[in-house]
Please model this.
Amino acid sequence: MIIEPRMRGFICLTSHPKGCAQNVVNQINYIKSKGTIDGAKNVLVIGASTGFGLASRITSAFGLNASTIGVFFEKPPQEGKTASPGWYNSLAFHEEAAKAGLYAKSINGDAFSTEVKNQTIELIKSDLGKIDLVIYSLASPVRLHPTTGVLHRSVLKPIGKTYTNKTVDFHTGIVSEISIAPCVDDDIANTVAVMGGEDWQMWMDALMKADVLSNNVSTIAYSYIGPSITEAVYRKGTIGKAKDHLEDTAFSITNDLNKLGGKAYVSVNKALVTQASSAIPVIPLYISLLYKVMKEKGLHEGCIEQMQRLFYERLYTNSNIPLDEKGRIRIDDWEMREDVQKEVSALWENATTATLPTTGDLKGYTSDFLNLFGFGFSEINYAEDTKENIVIDGLISVVPQK
Ligand code: NAI
Model:
């Protein structure tokens, strides 16, 4: 099969197995170039197949020599249809881990469900015994609540009043004005139910109850703050309420982990092109200006560079982990630097369809977007017929696919 990108809105309907594998190998090579460090030996990554979760798994395995269990919700390939990129990423990760003699098993299913939590616990008990680090990196638009049965849908809306600002269609480069109506009714509660900390807490409760967490265990979830330009739709919008809840949950989990000497952290990460962030209005324009400024200053990072810095310069150093006034780890420090933000704001003011090709890095944005689906890698011959492997060694599928 010859596979080409097929775009619909902010998603790509196809993905390329070899390109996804290249993406994984490039990230592994980056971590290998940094050498190994001492840290967690058994790592559970929830949301392990793309974005920050995949980069966390790669850093754990190839930077810490850790055994990893990954949980994700991805579509395997079907007759005439490619798999979702996270499926190919995980296939490649398993293959590379096996070559390196590293333990890697994964569970494909709904992480919000009790079944997936139970299955993960069984796997930990049979294979690893105890976990030293739990990464919580889920990004989902929906959550079927495991006890109430309610299907919650998250929304990306401002609170209180309509938000109007610029946005870009990154496929065409057209900058236009967008107005987003404020949230209504249960939008905030639903978004908090999906992207807040309740499920993280449920995972940690289940793992603790099953006695599969080691002494001094750490757990970490990812958050975002961002600039004033995106504040109304991000940090002060519905998703921001969910992030507030996630950040508060870290304190209650730390409390619960006290008896193990464990601790829960939130790391505030940089804005990056992932499947989750490309769905948020306004963010693609912000990211394309941010990329331009950060690349010019030599400060640009992707998910893997961010996770390398998180593990090597925050989590596993011999000194105390530096935290901000709200107890959070900050690896968005370079994004939020005053000079960076000042320049991005100035570019934002003048951003139009005509100016963006020179003032922004739309090319970088689009290339990163294509890379997410395994396209745009110079090493891959896309004209070549692709035969795909349809079995991931060490993968357990728990529930029917979405
Ligand atoms: P992503 O879309 O690349 O990855 C999401 C992961 O969650 C995938 O592995 C997917 O399979 C898994 N997943 C989704 N629903 C699931 C379900 N029901 N069951 C099991 N697995 C499921 O997202 P990204 O961007 O890496 O986001 C991860 C975290 O990082 C999120 O909390 C996000 O808010 C945060 N973050 C993202 C930033 C960005 O710019 N992309 C910036 C700062 C924080």
